[in-house]
Amino acid sequence: MTVHTSDSDIEKLLLSKREITSYGCWLWTGAVTGNGYGTVQIDTVQLGVHSVAARLWLKDYNPDLWTLHKCDIKRCFNPDHLFQGNNRTNQLDAVAKNRNNNTRKTHCPRGHPYDDENTVKYKNRRCKICARNNRKIYRAITGK
Fold first, then answer.
1. What tens digit of pLDDT does each residue of 23-66 get?
2. Max Cα separation, the chain?
3. Which residues lie closer than 8 Å to 85 by C-beta, 6 or more apart?
4. Range list of H helices, the chain
5. What are the extents of the domains in the chain?
6. 17 burial type by CB count under 10 A (0-12 exposed, 13-18 middle, 19+ buried)
7. CA 29 from centroid of its chain's CA atoms
8. CA dist., res. 42 & res. 51, Å (int)
9. Is 72 left (phi over 0), alpha (psi -120 to 50) or beta?
10. Could you report the per-residue pLDDT of 76-119, keeping only the tens digit for each?
């Protein structure tokens, strides 16, 4: 038989393990995952603390959406710092905040600059010099 923890007990647990920063973040002082997110076990299931907080306190909580951080602090679970979105929302948020690894790259893997003259933007950035070299190699191999 599974015991279900009540929302009020979960609230008490979360609030008992928070440290409030000068920025208003509610930092989780309990267990943290290897990549820095607060985690809590409820009814034998490990859950992200920010996701649990969203379910408890966000007005229009939708279980089909991801819970994201406005503050970018992985241990934060202040509902005022949380919002919901899908994978695309998460990716666009990362790009806007310069947290996406690809947006920080200034050069292609072969060392050519990603600048206005040398960059083609289709689905992602492509180096014109590398694209030109790849076409030459392809033509030499295939004869096309």
1. 999 999 999 999 999 999 999 899 999 999 999 999 999 999 99
2. 71
3. 65, 66, 68, 93
4. 7-16, 49-57, 87-96, 101-104, 128-142
5. 7-104, 105-144
6. middle
7. 21
8. 12
9. left
10. 999 999 999 999 999 889 888 877 777 778 898 999 999 999 99
Contacts of 128 (CB under 8 A, 6+ apart): 117, 118, 119, 120
- Alpha carbon separation from 2 to 41, 63, 88, 98 (Å, rounded): 14, 21, 35, 43
- With vertex at residue 68, the alpha carbon angle to CA 83 and CA 56, rounded to the nearest 5 degrees, is 60
With tokens 């973040």, the residue in question is 25
Residue owning tokens 């790009």: 95
C-alpha to C-alpha distance for 109 and 131, rounded to whole angstroms = 12
Angle at 10 between CA 8 and CA 11, to 5 degrees: 65
Q: Do 127 and 118 contact (CB within 8 A), yes or no?
A: yes
Token readout for 22 is 């000068």
User: Residue 1 has what pLDDT?
Assistant: 36
Q: Is 7-104 a CATH 3.90.75.20 domain?
A: yes
